Each structure stands twice: as C-alpha cells, then as structure tokens.
C-alpha cells in the first residue's frame, strides 16, 4: 500500500507539473505539496481501515464493507456540506489548516492497522 501510494503521488506530481507547463500556469509548489500530503493521507487512511477488515472477514465480505464505508464517508461528508450550505472558501481554509496534521495521523493509523492485522492473521484458523 505504501509503495502504491507513493507511486500514485509521483504520477500525480508529474501530471500536475505537466498541466501547469501546458497551460502556462505559474508553478505553485506549496500548493502541490499540500495536495500531495492530503492525497497520501487519504490513501493511507483507507488502507489502514481496509486491511484489518480484509483479514478479519475475508476478501469478499471485506470488500463489501470497504465499499460501504467509502460510500458512507464520501456521501456523508458531501451531504453534510450541502445541508449546512458550507462556504467553499471556508471549507478549503479548514482543509488547509488540518492538512499538516493528517499525514502523521494517517501514518499512526497505518502502524496500528499493521499490528492489528498481524494479530488477526495469527489468530486465524485455516
């Protein structure tokens, strides 16, 4: 998961820089780093939640729970923003304030997930 997340981030960085170059936009590396950190945090978060579920329930049931969890998080957050009629600028400002803390939290969750997944796997009967 970590290798794939970093590979996706590298592709994202290259694509973003190419887009800036083609559209002749100024390079905003501070924004790029923040977006990269946010994407990496989200990817590690979903991996952290997914692996213990997969080891506990198996691949088929685990995949169903992962899809359900993704729909609930994405749908719930977008519905909540629509219900409160949040100002997009305020939401973006909040995300920018929270982003520096997200990566350490995601890495911490990943470490907990690894330990939990190993324990689940060791207790599993074959």
Q: What's the pLDDT, averaged over the residues?
A: 87
Largest sheet: none
| SS strand fraction | under 5%
Low-pLDDT parts are: none
Helix/sheet category = mainly alpha
Taken from the alpha-carbon principal axes, the silhouette is: globular
Distance between the termini: 25 Å
Helix content: over 70%
- The radius of gyration computed from the alpha-carbon positions, rounded to a whole number of angstroms, is 18 Å
Number of helices: 4
Query: Could you give the order of the helices and strands?
Result: HHHH
Oligomeric description of these chains: single chain
Strand segment tally: 0
Question: Could you characterize what this model shows?
Answer:
With 126 residues, the protein is an all-alpha fold. Helix 1 runs antiparallel to helix 2 (29-57) and helix 2 (29-57) packs parallel to helix 4. The model has no long low-confidence stretch (mean pLDDT 87). The radius of gyration is 18 Å and the shape is globular. It has four helices and no strands.
